[in-house]
Write a structure and sequence with these properties.
The structure holds 2 protein chains of 2 kinds. In chain A, helix 3 packs across helix 9, helix 6 packs across helix 9 and helix 16 packs across helix 17. In chain A, a hairpin with a 6-residue loop joins strand 25 and strand 26. In chain A, the strands form 6 sheets. In chain A, strands 1-28-2-3-7-8-9-10-17-18-20 form an 11-stranded mixed sheet, with helices on one face. In chain A, strands 4, 5, 21, 24, 25, 26 and 27 form a 7-stranded antiparallel sheet that branches. Chain A has a 3-stranded mixed sheet with strand order 6-22-23. By secondary structure, chain A is an alpha+beta fold. Chain A contains 21 helices and 28 strands. Chain A folds into 3 domains: about 35 residues; about 500 residues, Aminohydrolase, N-terminal nucleophile (Ntn) domain (Glutamine Phosphoribosylpyrophosphate, subunit 1, domain 1); about 120 residues. In chain A, about 55% of the residues are buried. The relative contact order of chain B is 0.21. Chain B has one domain. Chain B is mainly alpha-helical. In chain B, helix 2 crosses helix 5 and helix 3 packs antiparallel against helix 5. Chain B starts with a helix and ends with a helix. Classes of the chains: A alpha+beta, B mainly alpha. At the A-B interface, helix 1 and helix 2 of A face helix 2, helix 3, helix 4 and helix 5 of B. Chain A: This is Penicillin acylase family protein.
């Protein structure tokens, strides 16, 4: 009896301890997680920095001052110490996030979250990001500047990781149940690969090929033109090209592979370039500013997440003093300013991802047809460790000289539903140039326009519009990066992988990338629109971001005099809807003729709307929804975007609105699915409007200024990067929209807003991002900038002249010294 | 007495050792110092529960409850009943239960071993 009592109590004690010490299904180890001595309770609050920090690897004393927004201002005496300290500090605040990006880019998420990430992992691995990063990391020589920076940064990150006990782990590791790995230069390159993918990784090629196969070249030329009706290109029209162009490859007889010739259905699933990934930047020259010197602004639009994609820092050595937004995991400042210059980036929307139809000799895929002969593929076996599975999964990837074959056979759950089967991807993201980091390194050091031009020669991908201003009163903008030298419309459709004329034939010479310095209009700007008008001698792509943001920015800047940082801030927050200004006069006439709209509240609201996407307007709720509906009504019958067998893409909004205005009798307005009736533009406009109002009413109830308010319907969310519920911020009150200068959509938006007033002595800068410096969800600095961001306000940035500068905003200073 | 012993010893030990060190400590105290089965159990359960609650309370207050709020919402997404009461109630209860059960049964097992070998 005594024995049984002992045995039972022992069993309970040991059993409970065991159970609480290991994950239970989806639940993490509860004992570990709940123990106040090491669990999540330990992650609350903000960590105060010690007065002195001893780190092995620091050579000379480094001073780190934290301001009231938890921005570290690092003053080092040499570059190794600077980047070491940057790595350490970023890891301290953002370790989980930076490792998460690298796990995603290298297709290893399944290792920590299990089987649900396997399709995403397979896709990312097949895209070859890990493979490319590995080669780039291996290509450095010991004395390359970039390698020294990468090594010092990695050492700093690892110095932080190595002293981490379970108790101090970021809470996400505790919840998901894993530990950080060692950092390395390879991981930083993965971060850059991640940006290449986010910014340059999308394709419409397959959908366009389907349209070409169905309707022929004339229709495609008419409906999918290579330049929009309305545009205000980045390089102002009339700018001279002061170079002698190199010969452009001639257009081959066949410009596309025929998708119908390929046996079997194509799994079309690569994402189209995300229209919400875009950005604004501009600089006004001294002639337009109150100070007589340039003012520069930038707001990159990315997916909004917590922790935020940006981290603010000041980095200083005896030869450099720079402040700005850094990408966690990446040394240096990506968007920022120093005493003399400021710069910013937006994405170049040129077509740098093409697909080649591959004719394999047989099912083994060991050889493919190219230039009249069989050419061998290279085989790579990718292995995936999956959490919760004892056996790793293997996936065979075949590489052609174009690039990797994305999917070999159709599968329901292939992650990117738009990848053509048996199609090889040619992508600028696979380029092995290893100097991108140096582009930013030299911008961080730049003192004038010449330094800016030199810095750009190092930067290759993803191509960006680099805006620039300095205190010599120079402003400039350059769509810059490696741009393939293409024949006209090369890669608008699926290319023929067997035809050498379809290969990329080299690059546009870097010094012939479009650029403009001090244009007569007194400002430069970009919003992802066409880089140039059609006079530029090279083909860059047929579709860029819609023109509205760029047009609106340019008309605001055109009218601007005596500009201050606040005038530029107001442009960043401009909610005016240019598309409404273009389209409404045409369609309101048509709606007015519809008797159903007599006394219709939605119609009345639209007529009276001030055409601003302000948060508490109802107009944008109706208009934005209607624009989608209207395009669907015009095009879905002929260009089925949702088709599983032959998906296509709609003609652009620019083309559609022009058709409504100038070709009201076009046959495309007829709905081909109704055989008894020929619809006119009137029918389509009126009925799509009715459908819009009906569906909004069904969802929101009868029209009401509160429930139909734009901000509530749009509902911007900033979710946690790892999608942990409760770790994000929902329903943020703001206006804007995808085609608005204030480009805040449901999930994307200005991820960093910056305005810099250049000055002969010391610049004044303003900025913030929708998040906070700390990546710790339990810290008050996790999301402390979100409310101010939603209101469109900016923080004045503390840009210290020296480490000893006094400021009431300084909270603490840490002396970092070497450990013997 | 066993209560205080477990409370103090496990407070010190947990500074350096994983959370499960509470089990051997409670076991040892139960073995050496407990006088009855229920006394052992309640000393073990009570000591760990109060220790954890006290320390968690301190951490939670100094963090303005931010972390608890995040974790609470995360769990509540799947366990809807957690939304029916304040997280301060439910999470302190769950925590006390986890620590208390382990501490209580460990101390009890220690005491039962004493009975067995005496």
């Amino acid at each position: 009896m005594k024995f049984i009592k002992f045995f039972v109590s022992l069993l309970l004690a040991a059993g409970l301890t065991y159970i609480f010490n290991r994950p239970l299904g989806a639940l993490p180890a509860l004992g570990k997680l709940f123990s106040p001595f090491e669990g999540f309770w330990q992650n609350g609050g903000s960590t105060s920095s010690p007065d002195e920090l001893k780190l092995e690897g620091i050579k000379e004393e480094v001073s780190v001052t934290f301001d009231d927004n938890r921005v570290p201002h690092v003053f080092a005496q040499n570059e190794d110490d600077l980047y070491f300290t940057q790595g350490y500090l970023v890891a301290q605040d953002r370790l989980w996030q930076m490792e998460f990006y690298t796990l995603a880019a290298s297709g290893r998420l399944s290792e920590v979250v299990g089987e649900r990430a396997i399709e995403l992992d397979r896709y990312n691995r097949r895209m070859g990001m890990a493979e490319t990063a590995k080669k780039i990391a291996a290509s450095y020589k010991q004395d390359d500047i970039a390698f020294k920076i990468l090594t010092a940064y990695s050492a700093g990150v690892n110095a932080y990781i190595n002293q981490l006990s379970y108790k101090k782990l970021p809470v996400e590791y505790k919840i998901i149940g894993y530990r950080p790995e060692e950092w390395s230069p390879y991981k930083t390159i993965l971060m850059l690969m991640n940006m290449r993918n986010v910014l340059n990784g999308g394709s419409e090629d397959f959908r366009m090929s389907n349209a070409l196969a169905k309707y022929g070249a004339d229709v495609v030329k008419d409906l999918f033109p290579d330049y929009p009706v309305i545009e205000s290109p980045i390089i102002p029209v009339g700018t001279k090209w002061d170079f002698t162009p190199v010969p452009v490859p001639s257009v081959p007889a066949e410009i596309a592979a025929n998708p119908a010739a390929k046996e079997g259905a194509l799994a079309y699933n690569i994402a189209a370039p995300a229209p919400e990934i875009g950005s604004n930047n501009w600089a006004v020259g001294g002639g337009k500013s109150a100070t007589g010197l340039p003012i520069l602004a930038n707001d990159p639009h990315l997916q909004l997440t917590l922790p935020s994609i940006w981290y603010q820092m000041q980095l200083s050595t005896p030869t450099m003093n720079v402040y700005g937004a850094c990408l966690p995991g990446t040394p240096g400042v990506t968007i920022g300013f120093n005493k003399d210059v400021a710069w910013g980036v937006t994405n170049v929307g040129s077509d740098v991802m093409d697909f080649y139809q591959i004719k394999f000799k047989d099912k083994t895929q060991k050889e493919y047809w190219y230039n009249g002969a069989w050419k061998p593929t290279t085989m790579l076996i990718e292995e995936f460790k999956i959490k919760g599975k004892s056996k790793p999964l293997q996936d065979t990837v075949y590489y052609t000289h174009h690039g990797p074959v994305l999917y070999n056979h159709a599968s329901e759950n292939n992650f990117a539903k738009n990848v053509p089967i048996g199609h090889a991807m040619k992508w600028v993201g696979h380029e092995l140039d290893n100097t991108d980091l140096l582009g930013f390194y030299y911008l961080n050091h730049a003192k004038n326009y010449d330094d800016y031009r030199k810095a750009l020669t190092y930067y290759k991908a993803p191509a960006q519009n680099f805006v620039f201003a300095d205190n010599n009163n120079d402003i400039a903008i350059t769509p810059n990066g490696k741009l393939p030298l293409k024949w006209k419309e090369q890669g608008k459709f699926i290319l023929d992988g067997s035809n050498p004329a379809h290969d990329w034939q080299g690059w546009i010479p870097a010094d012939q990338n479009p650029t403009v310095k001090n244009p007569p209009r007194g400002f430069v700007s970009s919003a992802n629109q066409f880089s140039t008008d059609p006079t530029y001698p090279y083909y860059l792509g047929w579709r860029f971001a819609p023109a509205e943001r760029g047009l609106r920015i340019n008309e605001r800047l055109e009218a601007m005099q005596q500009a201050t940082h606040d005038s530029l801030r107001s442009v960043q927050n401009d909610n005016f809807n240019l598309e409404a200004r273009r389209l409404l006069p045409e369609v309101i006439k048509i709606l007015a003729a519809d008797p159903r709209n007599k006394g219709n509240a939605a119609y009345e609201t639209l007529v009276k709307w001030n055409m601003k996407n302000d948060p508490y307007e109802v107009g944008p709720t109706i208009f934005e929804r209607w624009v989608k509906e209207l395009r669907y009504w015009v095009w879905e019958d002929e260009f089925a975007s949702q088709s599983t067998t032959q998906p296509m893409t709609y003609p652009t909004k620019d083309r559609t609105w022009d058709m409504i205005k100038n070709q009201p009798t076009a046959k495309w307005f007829d709905n081909v699915n109704t055989t008894d009736k020929v619809e006119t533009v009137q029918d389509i406009v009126q009925n799509s409007f009715k459908a819009t109002v009906d569906s909004l009413t069904a969802k929101l109830g009868p029209l009401n200024a509160d429930t139909w308010a734009w901000t509530k319907v749009k509902s911007t969310d900033i979710n946690h990067l790892g999608r942990l519920e409760g770790f994000g911020r929902q329903d943020i009150p703001n206006g804007g929209g995808p085609g608005i200068v204030n480009a805040t959509s449901e999930t994307h938006g200005p991820s960093w807003r910056m305005v810099v007033e250049l000055d002969k002595n010391w610049p004044k800068a303003y900025g913030l991002y929708p998040g906070g410096q700390s990546g710790n969800p339990g810290s008050p600095y996790y999301d402390n900038m979100v409310d101010k961001w939603a209101k469109g306000e900016l923080n004045e940035l503390l840009f210290m002249k020296t480490k000893d500068e006094k400021s009431s905003r300084i909270v603490s200073t840490t002396k970092v010294i070497g450990k013997k | 007495m066993p209560y205080i012993l477990i409370f103090v010893a496990s407070a010190i030990a947990q500074m350096f050792l994983p959370w499960w060190v509470i089990a051997p400590i409670a076991f040892a105290v139960g073995l050496v110092a407990s006088k009855s089965a229920s006394g052992a159990f309640f000393a073990g359960a009570g000591a760990i529960a109060t220790l954890w609650i006290a320390y968690a309370l301190y951490l939670n207050v100094s963090a303005d409850g931010l972390m608890l709020d995040r974790i609470g919402n995360l769990f509540a997404e799947n366990l809807k009943f957690l939304k029916d009461m304040p997280f301060t109630v439910s999470f302190f209860a769950i925590m006390a239960l986890i620590g208390g059960l382990v501490g209580g049964f460990s101390a009890l097992a220690g005491y039962q071993l004493k009975r067995l070998i005496k």
